[in-house]
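> example.struct
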């Protein structure tokens, strides 16, 4: 998609909650000469791991790693981003003990815990989106699945219809509405 839409490959992108940096690296490899990714995470460990992966894949010239919470480290690029991508913590706190062992035992709580209904971080991201994206900009958020995605599509379409269009839930390979995407007016 980064290569297919005009202007995307040379735009500036943010990967919010970059973790290992996998998304930032993948986007960086699609970018043109002027493209750039800001990879943000509040965890110092994640930032260090992302830094290693960015070096391993040789995309240091395209990825700038920033330590901090969500939009806070992006003050200087407000209104200039072509895309925002985030796979934030979205599991409801009460569901954490029931997660599959490969997730619950190995992932830090900081990477999973989305608060009471799982939406705490996703709502914060929705609130801040319009201040960082430029007109024509794109966003994609991963969610816990159907209910969260449907809720967010309805919320964004109702509350921020003047800022966003073509907001929709997108299926994953298991036919679950896993992602919410949209464009900035
Ligand atoms: C589900 S993991 C996603 C990691 C990676 N992007 C991926 O898709 O594999 C969520 C990430 O969000 C980060 N995170 C949690 N709270 C954050 C905050 N307030 N600001 C920025 N990142 C945060 C966690 O440290 C973790 O790396």
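> example.seq
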């Amino acid at each position: 998609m980064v290569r297919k839409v005009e202007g995307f490959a040379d735009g500036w992108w943010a990967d919010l909650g970059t973790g290992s940096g996998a998304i930032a690296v993948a986007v960086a490899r699609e970018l043109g000469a002027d493209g750039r990714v800001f990879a943000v995470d509040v965890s110092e460990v994640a930032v260090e791991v992302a830094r290693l992966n960015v070096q391993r894949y040789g995309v240091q010239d395209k990825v700038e790693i920033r330590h901090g919470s969500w939009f806070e480290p992006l003050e200087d690029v407000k209104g200039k981003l072509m895309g925002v991508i985030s796979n934030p913590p979205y599991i409801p706190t009460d569901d954490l003990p029931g997660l599959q062992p490969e997730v619950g035992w190995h992932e830090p709580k900081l990477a999973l815990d989305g608060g009471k209904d799982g939406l705490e971080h996703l709502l914060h991201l929705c609130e801040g989106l319009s201040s960082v994206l430029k007109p024509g900009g794109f966003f994609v958020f991963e969610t816990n699945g159907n209910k969260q995605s449907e809720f967010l599509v309805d919320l964004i379409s109702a509350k921020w219809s003047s800022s966003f269009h073509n907001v929709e839930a997108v299926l994953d390979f298991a036919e679950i509405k896993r992602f919410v995407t949209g464009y900035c007016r």
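> remarks
The chain has one domain: 12-184.
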